[in-house]
# Entry
Amino acid sequence: MNSFLHLLAKDLILKYGHDFDNLIILFPNKRAGLFLAQELAQLIDRPVWMPEILTLAEFIERQTGLKKAEELTLIIKLYKTYQEHAGTTERFDDFYFWGNMLLGDFDDIDKYLVDAKDLFSNITALREIESAFPYLTPEQVEFIQSFWRSFNAEKYSQEQQEFLNVWDKLYPTYTKFKAKLFAENLCYEGMGQRLFCERLTKHHTDRQLVFAGFNALNQCEKRIFSYFRDNGQALFYWDYDLYYSANENHEAGLYIRENMKLFPNALGLEHFNNFRYNEKNIEYISVPSTIGQAKLIPTLIGQIHPEQQNSYTDTAIVLCDESLLTPVIHSIPDTIDKINITMGYPAQNTSVAALIGMLGDLKHYSKKEGNSTHYYYKPVIALLNHKLIKSTCAEEIPKITNYINTNNIVYVAESSLQFSDITRAIFSSTEENLPDYLLQILKQLIVSIQPDGHEGLSIEKEFLFSIFTTIQGIKNTFQEEHIVPDNKLYLQIIHKILQGVSIPFSGEPLEGMQIMGLMETRMLDFKNLVILSANEGILPKGGHASSFIPYNLRLGFGLPTPEHMDALFAYYFYRLLQRAKQVKILYTDVTKGMSSGEMSRFLYQIKYESGLPVKEIHFQNNISVQDNPTISISKNPEIMDKLKSYSQEDARGISPSALNTYMECHLKFYFKYMARIKEKEEMAEELDHRLLGTIFHQSTQSLYQTFPEGEITTEGLDTLIQNDALIEEHIREAYLNLYDTTVSKMLESGANELVLSVVKKYVKKVFEYDKTLCPFQIISMEKTYRMPITLFPLKSPMIIHVEGDIDRVDRITQGTRVIDYKTGADKTDFKDLPSIFDSSNKQRNKAAFQTLLYCMMYEHENPGTDPILPGIYSTKLLFTPNYSYLLKCNKEAIQRFKPYEPEFQDLLVQLLEELFSPEIPFTQTEIPEKCRTCSYNDICKRK
# Structure
């Protein structure tokens, strides 16, 4: 295979021998120049002076002396010019994004030599258009008329009036903007090209020029090419294939056909008929996932090169979607020791770019309360867990994040986060200037990270330095132009600029397998190709640059349109394939997110139009669906020791809720109480059902404590019910036990206020209900009770302690009540006592079990108490007519616990002997429905 650059080098030697002193070779990009130099070196057998190799942009800059300015600098200068001529007070923050679009339009206007005065004219009188633009074709005039036809000079719509207000100011802005740039010896690319075109005779060169590898030429480039062609100073080398150039309807040859008519090719047709006649082997491979394409690379390389090669320079992996770079790098086989990555690593994909975003969120969501600053917990935890931060203080950070979660700290005080040099820099409110704040942190990280031979840290340090340099440049630009954007815009600009920044990989570009983007393949040829992400919407790329110039006016004045980009991508793709022999093209066949799941239209064209055999392979992942294994945990000596801790006098006893958990699912009990696996705790910014119950319990307890000696009377409750201020004060105190005063002010949650009003209704309803029982005396509230139970799990006695907090014990006329508060809709009835111990009972009344156990515990500490009345205050059911708090067994109210106690105790002993038996393992529940909401479902995988 003779590559295009090989043909070019050979022809240059044929035409010029070894005398290249007077020769300048101009390419559309830099990369081709390096490969051409290699081709020349291989063909030349003696020392010679190499020809000068430049890009066209470099050649123009040298001739005009104008330096291409950075995009941000150009937008700022455009903003200032627009302000001067529009008389607007629009802030730079609002101008930036549409100013960026306007800059692109000005660039197109100059590259295509459009008369800006004509373009920006307000011609609503349609008959004037033909006379105003005699140089346009009838078709172009029709496009312009079709746009202005919708404007009625007598009555503009609001949108039309706003459009015209800006449109009328664009021509003076355009002319003054260019004059200002010229005065400072600056330009944008289109301005430089146009100036060069307009002064070609002044910028004349006597040297011979070779234009090679170009495709879509704008009007400036055509004029430049024509000038040097007419002077006999130019040779033109076009890279194409007759397959698409000879077909008038093929979009890949749209520009090449015109170019070769204007500027004939220096190479003969015999070199450009490879596409259908070089024994191509084309495979289309559909893959279920994007990452799956990268994972197939070792297999595909093995098919192309069955045996290990000394060099893989004839093979390229081409990424139509450059975000695949990271998985592709990790998928390269170890047998390939040299690769060259041409595109660089995208700065926006680095951990440092993510860190910048987190720091922006931290500042955005911080709040001032008095002289202190508090930070919203989400960006705080994200930052502390960022690998660059965590590596500097690995021991302290888990403790801090655990403390924040455990204590439900929604807004974290700045002072509590300053435990190291880097966290003092991050959680600092003294630096108000965002770029200085970011630069200080990045600088500190650069200094603190010591790679010490660790390759990963070396790469991170390179990322830090590159992004530090980028942000420093942005800061300098704003300072030089005396613009002070707000922090939000600063971050947006930083992220936008980082999208265009690539961190280069070190390597030898002429060695090894090439990994490159489609745009970088221009003028390069490879025998073997693996092309990834050849999906419609990616190839050609979907979406096009925004423009302030309406589509029809673009057509009318010959400016590029979206169809222009489609033809460009078609050329890049077909040109890449034309000399290749082994071509493997992969695409994703599953619709997900923005991916269409459809292969590119270019693949369909080759399949149905080229006549070439195409092998289609549908790759599928081998997925084996297996039933999740049954989990059974035997009670080994370590587990038995943990269980025996419930028998110790000085240890906490087993709680009624733990026994309820055991009956719900033995395995869940093991995870929670034996393995100590914590359920995932969500930070509660707004009061959920659990926190509502806590506030209800605490406020009810504190309000009843206002009665002297716990003596409750009807008059006292009436007074309390009417005292809204006192009730609200106690509810607020309970709320502040969850969130301190400072944090509660910053929450500003209307939902929380609504929940607190619900708590108030619940509290008042309890008081209303209690009035029917007056007078009565409160014996205890939220008090811990403890009771021993003697078991015989191994034929030897064992004493287990049961311990729990009883919500309320009081004494009414009928006896002593043991009350359990429930903020749900827990029912008070159950079938019989065995039903509340039956793990297989889907309707098992957990609340009834717990309340009866409380009765037994209370009686143990207060022997002789009789009758004991077990009851449940269900705050939701309290609002129903004729609600009774008493538990009901088989529809009969339990007026005395004593008759039920022997059977309940026997069942409890059986339950505990099962739990403490070393022979009975912890197993999963027999009711799978319970698993759906279980916190440990991710462990046992039961659906």
In short: The radius of gyration is 39 Å. The first strand starts at residue 23 and ends at 27.
